[in-house]
Amino acid sequence: MRMPSFIEKLGWISAVVLPFWNIPLIIRIERRKSSKDMSLAWALGVFACLIGMLPSGLQSTDPVFKAFTVANLAIFSGVVVQVLRYR
Question: I need a labelling partner for 34 at 20 to 30 A (CA). Which of 5, 73, 77, 85 fits?
Answer without folding.
Answer: 73
